[in-house]
Amino acid sequence: MHTIEIKNGIIVDGSGSDSYIGNVYLKDKEIIAITHGEVINSDISIDATGKIVTPGFIDLHSHSDFSFLLDSTAQSKLRQGVTMELLGNCGFSLCAPLNKYTKEDFDSWISEYTDTFDITWSDFGGYIAASKKAKATINLAFQVGHGTLRASVMGYEDRTPSADELDKMKNLAGECLDAGALGLSTGLVYSPGTYSRTDELISIAEEVSKRNKLYSTHQRDEGNDSVGLYVSLNEAIEVGRRTECKVQVSHVKCDSKAVWGTADKYINLLESANKEGLDIAGDQYPYNRWSTSLAGGLFPIWAQAGKFIGMGYVRNDGYIDPDFVLSGEYELEVATKRVRANVCLKPLYDPKLEKVKT
User: Fold this and answer.
1) CA distance 31 to 24
2) pTM value?
3) Domain span(s) for CATH 3.20.20.140 in the chain
4) 188 Cβ partners below 8 Å, 6+ apart?
5) Average pLDDT, stretch 309-335?
6) By Cβ atoms counted within 10 A, which residue in 130, 145, 169, 176 is the most buried?
7) Residues 136 and 68 sit within 8 Å (Cβ to Cβ)
């Protein structure tokens, strides 16, 4: 194998130390040396003058669950320096486990990108094997979604699970974690995760704790839409406290005017939990907007009970064409109530970057 030199770059090594001008040497897919200018014989030299050289970035919050099955090159992430993604966030691991309920969800999402896709698996181990076979250019880590587990066992029903259903969810979570999932995620603002009580989350998260894996959560309220930001955050902390599992709060934010200016209180709560001995942290994306599915941003939870509501169409109380674009103010009839919303959807790029979808 050739020895590759990346020379004269501004090296930021991720340790917290000051940056410096130096050279990085690679061979056999490994870094063999980092120098402060000292030269080692190399076969290929890349001049990085004026450019920053860093370890690859880890994207802790990704929804690319099936993207690498469609296009393994991951150009949109790799060209930004992302070399690892954590999938299965916000309670949805759309690719596994699959049964008569969750396969419908999978088909709905993947139909946005391709009309033909051959599913060769149903369990989590099979999904990981298919992902490995696709040979993604970046590293992948997987989570199993609580919403997917719940849908697998009891569909999208707005009710407390029976003891038997809860045991099935716990067993299925354990199977997925043992097959290679690195954690469990929840999406408590979305159907069906929002229908769960805290004791259900604690019970399933016990399976995570047994295996020393991660519990990540899109918390129940990031502003003042339902229970409130701080009741919601304390629920996440309580799951960690009761189960002793590691907790990751996804996309930390104070999402409405009622809680603007209270970020210090939020951070203090996390720090207090850590001082108590809990292992809890949060992540935050580097921009001041957020995105979600059409259903998640527009339709109330009560309208989603009993059926999956996909990207751009409703199968519960009526049908909206998947290519229908909302822009401006619309009044939509869902069930027996009417919902008024101001919506503008930006174009979404498909994984193969062949065309823009609106």
Assistant:
1) 7
2) 0.82
3) 57-282
4) 91, 194, 196, 201, 217, 218, 219, 220, 232, 235
5) 38
6) 145
7) yes
